[in-house]
Specification:
Radius of gyration: 17 Å
Distance between the termini: 25 Å
Strand order of the largest sheet: 3-2-1-4-6-5
Shape: globular
Structural class: alpha/beta
Largest sheet: 6 strands, mixed
Number of helices: 9
CATH class: Alpha Beta
Number of domains: 1
CATH architecture: 3-Layer(aba) Sandwich
Number of strands: 6
Length: 236
C-alpha cells in the first residue's frame, strides 16, 4: 500500500487536494479502488497535511440485494477507526427495472454521485474523495475522443460551487495494477459488484481495448496520460 500512498501524496501536493482541518468523505463501494483510497487516506490522516484532517466513509446501497449486510465494509472501517455511513437507495430498481435503461451507466453514475454529495453535505464534509485512478482517466479520455468526438476528461479537483463541496481524486497518479496489487497484498476483502451490467459496459470494452494496445505497445497508457496532463483541459 506504500506505493499507492506515495501516489496519493504526490496528487494531494500537486493539486492541493487536502488542507488542514478538512473533513473528507470517501465514496466507498467496497471495490478495490475505493478500498485502497480509504485505507490510504485513513493511514495518512496524521501526516499528509500539518494539523491533520478527518475521514469518514459513505457507502451507497444501490438496492440490488435487500439482504446485504455490508460486513466487509463495516469491518474495514472499524479497523481503520473511520465512521461508516450507509445510505439506502433504490437506484438499482429505478435504473434497471423502472427506466429499463439500455445504457444504464450514465444515469446510475449521476444518481449515485448525487446521493454521495447529499450525504457528504449532511455530514458537514467539505471534500468528497472518489477512487478514480490513472487508468480511469485514460479510459474516460479515449471514450470521449472516440465515441463523442471531443477532447474531455474529469479533472483531479472539481469544485461544486452550488454545493460548497470539492470533489477530489487522490489516486489519479496510481495505475490500476498498482491498486489491485496493494489491496491483494494487504489481504483486504473486497466486495464483488452486484450491478447487472458489470463487465458489459462501454468502459469495460475500452479497458480491454487499451489493455491489448498496451501489450503491443508498452508505455502507451502512460503517454496518453501525459497528453492529458499537457492538454490544457480545465483542472489539469
Amino acid at each position: 500500500m506504500q506505493r499507492v500512498m506515495g501516489h496519493l501524496r504526490r496528487a494531494c501536493d500537486k493539486y492541493n487536494m487536502i488542507t488542514p482541518g478538512d473533513k473528507v468523505a470517501v465514496g466507498l463501494s467496497g471495490g478495490k479502488d475505493s478500498v485502497a483510497l480509504l485505507v490510504s487516506l485513513a493511514r495518512s490522516r496524521s501526516f499528509l497535511v500539518e494539523g491533520g484532517f478527518e475521514v469518514v466513509a459513505i457507502m451507497i446501497d444501490m438496492g440490488f440485494d435487500p439482504d446485504a449486510d455490508h460486513a466487509e465494509a463495516k469491518a474495514l472501517c472499524q479497523s481503520l477507526g473511520v465512521e461508516l455511513h450507509i445510505v439506502p437507495t433504490q437506484i438499482g430498481e429505478i435504473v434497471f427495472n423502472e427506466r429499463k435503461e439500455p445504457n444504464p451507466c450514465s444515469l446510475c453514475s449521476r444518481m449515485r454521485r448525487g446521493a454521495l454529495v447529499n450525504e457528504a453535505q449532511q455530514l458537514g464534509c467539505n471534500k468528497l474523495a472518489l477512487g478514480h485512478h490513472l487508468d480511469d482517466a485514460v479510459e474516460t479520455f479515449m471514450m470521449s475522443l472516440t465515441q463523442e468526438g471531443r477532447i474531455n476528461c474529469f479533472s483531479p479537483v472539481t469544485l461544486l460551487e452550488d454545493k460548497s463541496l470539492t470533489v477530489i481524486r487522490p489516486l489519479i497518479f496510481a495505475e490500476e495494477r498498482e491498486v489491485s496489487r496493494a489491496v491483494r497484498k494487504s489481504g483486504i476483502t473486497i466486495t464483488k459488484s452486484r450491478c447487472p451490467a458489470d463487465g458489459e459496459t462501454s468502459r469495460q470494452r475500452m479497458k480491454e481495448k487499451l489493455k491489448a494496445e498496451e501489450k503491443a505497445d508498452p508505455g502507451l497508457k502512460i503517454r496518453i496520460f501525459g497528453a492529458i496532463e499537457r492538454s490544457g483541459l480545465f483542472g489539469w
